[in-house]
């Protein structure tokens, strides 16, 4: 795949009056067309963090000044450990302190942490103001900026406080990925890989064949990975916006992954690293329950390791894992429910005996 095949594309999320477009391509930040047709208002507020703001905030501000009389900015501390009430309150404090009205448009410039917090602030400020996602990590471009899940963490559980609240547009400028640290690129690949086993075996083949190009940040490869991921997510979210059933498949690997993140302390492992390792554990559980052949586990472990992600789980102890996983949003009546693969491209939710989960943890322990 060569870079000259990287042309802009649009994926649409069909949700009746909450429908919107995801723009994907290079040079979107500086293209005036990107910013046409957004909700009108006197004030726009850019929310970013101390890492991303120096890189891209002024470029965004210049574009927005063509559409909004005032463009404010709030720069948050960086890190998953700051995805909490006090940090999100900085957004709300600014909005109230500057007398921003209910038409004010929020722009989330950054990765999933900034996106999730900005979306939640937009959902609750004056019972809802419009917001636009400008994702700058691979993870945010392929997953977190799309679909309207917004949240902050609680010490007892990840993403436990939040709202379903859709953005007005998602603008995924692939050029912003140039400055992304390699570890963060790998974390984003975890969410890309996820879409293969749950929905699209051909995409899984494609990822395996193009992993080198993705790791080398080939723009055409990244463009296809972002587009195909967003198409699959749009297909899922279009049928089940509020996760009454189908949408849960997007959480493949996340039950174990969230437990690792919470158990180690937020920020120790990246979210995508937890998901990568969590997919190995969930694949193993799928095999042990007889849903998939052993070769599937070997294939997933090989791909996830080749992407630069951890495949061995931290030794938190099975009892602690089980305790953490019972707080997962998918749990029902205290029963942990895992997203498991039931055939390539097909996922479902199931419980599993604690003893089997403990076997999986032991077999894949660091
Ligand atoms: P992140 O937001 O912490 O960003 C990762 C790091 O990269 C940060 O240090 C950030 O400052 C930096 N960064 C961002 N863009 C950069 C750029 N272009 N150049 C250089 N550095 C850059 O993490 P993430 O992986 O983007 O997102 C993870 C979060 O997303 C987690 O909190 C997770 O729970 C959430 N999430 C939400 C959903 C959803 O549907 N809402 C889905 C998946 C994940
Ligand atoms: N990342 C899972 C979801 O959006 O449902």
Keywords:
binds nicotinamide-adenine-dinucleotide; binds glycine; Rossmann fold; 2 domains; Dehydroquinate synthase-like, alpha domain; single chain; alpha/beta; seven-stranded mixed beta sheet; 11 strands; 366 residues
The shape, in one word, is globular
**CATH architecture descriptor text of the largest domain:** Up-down Bundle
Mean pLDDT score, rounded?
A: 96
Series of H and E elements = EEEHEHEHEHEEEHHHHHHHEEH
Q: Give me the count of strands.
A: 11
Which percent range fits the helix content? Answer: 40-55%
Structural class by sheet pairing and helices: alpha/beta
Largest sheet: 7 strands, mixed
| CATH superfamily label of the largest domain | Dehydroquinate synthase-like - alpha domain
Highest CATH level, the class of the largest domain? Mainly Alpha
Counted by DSSP, the helix tally is 12
Bound small molecules, deduplicated: nicotinamide-adenine-dinucleotide, glycine
CATH topology of the largest domain: Dehydroquinate synthase-like, alpha domain
Instruction: Return residue spans where pLDDT drops below 50 for at least 5 consecutive residues.
Output: none
Could you give the order of strands across the largest sheet? 1-2-9-6-5-3-4
> What's the N-to-C terminus distance?
36 Å
Task: Compute the CA-based radius of gyration.
Answer: 20 Å
Please give the domain count: 2
Give the strand content.
Answer: 15-25%
């Amino acid at each position: 795949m060569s870079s000259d095949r990287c042309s802009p594309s649009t994926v649409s999320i069909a949700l009746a009056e909450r429908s919107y477009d995801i723009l994907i391509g290079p040079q979107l930040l500086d293209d005036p067309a990107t910013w046409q047709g957004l909700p009108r208002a006197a004030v726009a507020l850019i929310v970013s963090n101390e890492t991303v703001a120096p890189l891209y905030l002024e470029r965004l501000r210049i574009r927005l000044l063509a559409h909004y009389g005032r463009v404010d900015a709030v720069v948050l501390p960086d890190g998953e450990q700051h995805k909490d009430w006090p940090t999100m309150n900085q957004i709300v404090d600014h909005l109230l302190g500057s007398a921003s009205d209910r038409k004010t448009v929020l722009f989330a410039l950054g990765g999933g942490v900034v996106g999730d917090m900005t979306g939640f602030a937009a959902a609750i400020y004056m019972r809802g103001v419009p917001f636009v996602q400008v994702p700058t990590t691979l993870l945010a471009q392929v997953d977190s900026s799309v679909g309207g899940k917004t949240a902050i963490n609680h010490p007892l559980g990840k993403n436990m406080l939040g709202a379903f609240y859709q953005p007005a547009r998602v603008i995924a400028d692939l050029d912003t990925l140039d400055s992304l640290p390699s570890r963060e690129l790998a974390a984003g690949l975890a969410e890309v890989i996820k879409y293969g086993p749950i929905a699209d075996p051909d995409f899984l083949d494609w990822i395996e064949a193009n992993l080198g190009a993705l790791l080398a940040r080939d723009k055409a490869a990244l463009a296809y990975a972002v587009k195909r991921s967003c198409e699959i997510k749009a297909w899922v979210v279009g049928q089940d916006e509020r996760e009454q059933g189908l949408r849960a498949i997007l959480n493949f690997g996340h039950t174990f992954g969230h437990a690792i993140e919470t158990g180690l302390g937020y920020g120790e492992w990246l979210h995508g690293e937890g998901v990568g390792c969590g997919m190995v554990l969930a694949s193993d559980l799928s095999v042990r329950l007889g849903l998939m052949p052993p070769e599937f586990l070997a294939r997933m472990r090989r791909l996830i390791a080749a992407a630069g992600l951890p495949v061995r789980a931290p030794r938190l102890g099975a009892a602690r894992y089980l305790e953490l996983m019972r707080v997962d949003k998918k749990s029902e009546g205290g029963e942990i429910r895992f997203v498991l693969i039931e055939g390539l491209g097909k996922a479902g939710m199931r419980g599993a005996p604690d003893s089997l989960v403990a076997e999986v943890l032991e077999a894949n322990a660091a």
